Amino acid sequence: MKDREKNKGKNKNIIVCPNCLNPHLKIVGLPGVTPPYYVCEKCGYRGYVVLEIPLEEYFKIKRRFSERSKSDIKFSLSQHRE
Ligand SMILES: [Zn+2]
After folding, report:
1. What is the pLDDT of residues 32-75, one digit of tens each?
2. What is the architecture of the domain spanning 12-78?
3. 3-state secondary structure (DSSP) of residue 21
4. Which residues surround the ion ligand 1 when the cut-off is CB under 5 Å?
5. Where are the domains of the chain?
6. 50 with 13: CB under 8 angstroms?
7. pTM
8. What is the whole-number distance in angstroms between the Cα of residue 79 and the centre of ligand 1?
9. CB atoms < 10 A from the CB of 65, how many?
């Protein structure tokens, strides 16, 4: 029971931009009327598809991203070259 409560707080999911992992997305649309439409002011991404990941995972990915140069990120997502 105690463990369960612990996990509940730990496994908090956040919504991030699938393009640049910006967690500060703007939601456009009428709640309950239209599906939420997300706008990322950082990279200009707009769409209905966003990434929902646990907060822990977000920090892990972000750390990995910052270790690489920005041009490397896009490349590693489309095809892996070593
Ligand atoms: Zn973005």
Report:
1. 898 889 999 999 999 999 999 999 999 998 888 777 655 555 55
2. Alpha-Beta Complex (3.90)
3. coil
4. 17, 19-20, 22, 40, 42-43, 45
5. 12-78
6. no
7. 0.61
8. 20
9. 14
Q: Compute, in angstroms, the gap from residue 7 CA to the centroid of ligand 1.
A: 29
Q: Tokens 């972000």, residue? A: 62
Read off the amino acid at residue 73: I
Single-letter amino acid code for the residue at 7: N
DSSP line for 22-47: -S-PEEES-TTTS--EEE-TTT--EE
13: CB partners within 8 A, 6+ apart: 52, 53, 54, 55
Token pair belonging to 5: 């409560």
- CA R_g for the chain: 16
* Entry field: residues in the chain: 82
**Secondary element (H or E) of residue 51:** strand 51-54
